[in-house]
Fold:
Amino acid sequence: MKELFFKTSYDADDRGHFGAYGGRYVPEMLMPALEELEKAYDDARRDPGFARDLTDLYHHFSGRPTPLYHAQNLSRQLGGAQIFIKNEGLNHTGAHKINHCLGQALLAQRMGKKRIIAETGAGQHGLATATVAARFGFECTVFMGEVDVARQRPNVFWMEQLGTEVRPVGFGSRTLKDAVNAALKDWIATVETTHYIIGSCLGPHPYPSMNRDFQAIVGAEVEDQIQDHGFPKPDYVIACVGGGSNSLGIFNAFLDDPEVHLIGVEAGGKGVEKLGDHAARFEGGRPGVVEGYKSFFLQDTDGQLTHTHSISAGLDYAGVGPQIVYLKDRGRLHLTYATDEQAIAAFRMLASTEGILPALESSHAVAEAIKLAPTLPQKKSIVVNLSGRGDKDIFIVAEAVKDSKWLDFLQSVIDREKQSDTK
Amino acid sequence: MNKISERLDQLKTSNTTGLMTHLVLGYPDMPTSIEIARTLARGGADFLEIQIPFSDPVADGPTIMTANQTALDRGITVPECLRAISEICEQVDIPVLIMSYYNLVFSYGTAEFCTAAQKSGVSGLIIPDMPIEEEQDELLFQHADEHDLINITFVSPATSKVRLEKIATFTRGFTYCFSTYGITGSRTELDSHLASYIGEVRKHLDLPLGIGFGIKTPDHIRQIGKIADIAIVGSAIIDQYNTASPDHALQQIGSYVGSLKAATRR
Structure:
């Protein structure tokens, strides 16, 4: 397998610029912290001991390597290319987020930090952060928009059980972008003792590069695993694109292999015609500089970030990692989108044909594979990054498929609670 | 000569601490915020920092952030803000600086924004999320300079000596020193390390220094007067507005600024 940290011809320059994007657009208070982090990361990356420790955690704590599963039933039913599922949902905590959390926790420990903070949308990154905080003995605060707290209660509950303080963010649109904002503010005030674990390949340099490197194990594993299935390399690799952590994680190993087609799937929400109805940055977004980095953002004519919508909290964000834009600009990455409805349909199809419940984020990637596979011959291969498992989305999916028995169940739980209260 | 530099010269001659006061345009509404600007100028402010609201103000605390959101919820736009700033500049004598976040400038077009700011009568820009490292791509300092605007630089207690020297080469007018690691918002005590930190900055930056973040009381102004050139008061003014009864809010802001002004004589 590849070395844990490897270079590609699509890396950032020394100042963290991916072509015209990326950089470090932060208030002066954050500058020293980012310089410190950049230096610590550069040192760690060159230290074989760090790679060894991280690999050990990947294997024995998170359960890597995750399988590359040949979805034969789904492939047969669609009657085209062979679909392979890179099942990141089988990681400890249920999603790929644990990969960069382990990397950053190890780095924070190396830097002598005592506390970690994070922002979270779907709650998966928060949960992964809370998990590593418990594992490494860090004090931990996770910032989460009130809207997300409401729709991802199970993850909030688990974070609290892990000893993390979940701080709901009640300003702005009360979703992921506001959680990022709140976390940055906390960091500005606590930078000496605290490391901020940003949850995707975005934010100021060095986060986009660092998180990509901590996620790159995903693609590196696929590169080997696909050969076990008789393919020298995948013909297509599909991943959903929120900030870019799972997508860059699987793409990175293939960037310099132009025969491998890379497809990113954004959240089309209720449709991409109207700003506010979706979170597809390449459908109506434009360049901007927000929250410390230059990239594509969904914004109004003045440059104010607009509200976004997606059924999956993890994709419901106005910005996207700078390397994603760079890959698109250089023609290396094709971007498309799936709507809420298509994601739910894909969820149901994968569940019923393969016995795999994908996270709603990952369902967007599955939706694209379902579209693409029938247009390709059977000897072609499609690898879908199933970034997370769907357990966390039980409430949203139950609502989306209008399961009345689920509502009855919720009501019965409430009734039972009430009864025991009155006793 | 730029009005900021002129004012700094006057302050030096008269041996007083400069007073820079801040407001968020469109908070609580546009006409009132324009009135607040006039009130601050009448009350004795030496510089007016006028914030154009942004959806993601990363360097602001809850008070100013809420004011930003309130103004945006009312549908305020950048062109409207520039018109209002132009109106304010006609009515006040003191130098006006636009404070905002870089995305609004970038979105408008960096050169175009500087042209518009100059046309409005503005003397300087305060853009906390556009560090000197990005100048080679953004050319904000350069465009500001070409339009006789001073683009203010920043330092914080965590800024290294190496950075201080780099920042010094970009600085014109004065440097905005963050008083603490924290974000904007009123606090009762100034950081005990403030004097030694500012002393360190002085060694590398031989230019006027402004101190902002958490500056609230006449006593704060007197303390700053001993070590720096300008005291910058932000969210404390919004706090004054928020705690006053609507009928007396302007009056209260006026007398508050008066009390700060009285503490600027050295």
Summary: Chain B has a mean pLDDT of 94. The longest strand of chain B covers residues 18-24.
